[in-house]
Amino acid sequence: MKVLILNGAKVFGSSNGELNTLLCDTAKTELESLGHTVLYTKIDAGYNISEEAKKVLDADVIIWQYPAWWMAEPWIVKKYLDEVFMEAATGLLSSDGRHANDPEHGYGSGGLAVNKKYMICTTWNAPKTAFDDKNEFFEGRGIDGVCFAMHKAMQFCGLKKLPSFICNDVIKNPKVNDYIKNYKAHIKANF
Asked: pTM for the complete prediction?
């Protein structure tokens, strides 16, 4: 398979994006050892929209790797999604899915990328309990509930979801060796 790894690490404030880049490097090494071809983009380094659109269309799987900032992806990741997926839209979408004879139903069912998959991998300073405990901040919604908008953007294009991966407590209680070990196992289990 061709796997496109999108590194959404952003140098900003005290963050140099090192953990997200390390996770991308880990995924690249593991995927190549499994015989997959890896395409890679470090979004913050800049990109050519047309070249990226071709990568998106050529990829069998897209891995979105990014830190959570204010409960979502950094703005550069959203900008990439807006620019590149719009450029690739003719290969990703037939329409928004609705038909003139029934404009109230079918929205989101016009995706053409039904043979592609994606995976969201994020890093958070929030502990795991913040996601899983209904009495904590994210009200038990889990990582997929918190990343709902990104999941829906991929689903809109027809992509199928692979299990998400999350690194928790990355600033207050970092466990980098555990993150890497667990991510390697996650990749092997899903590829």
From this structure: 0.96
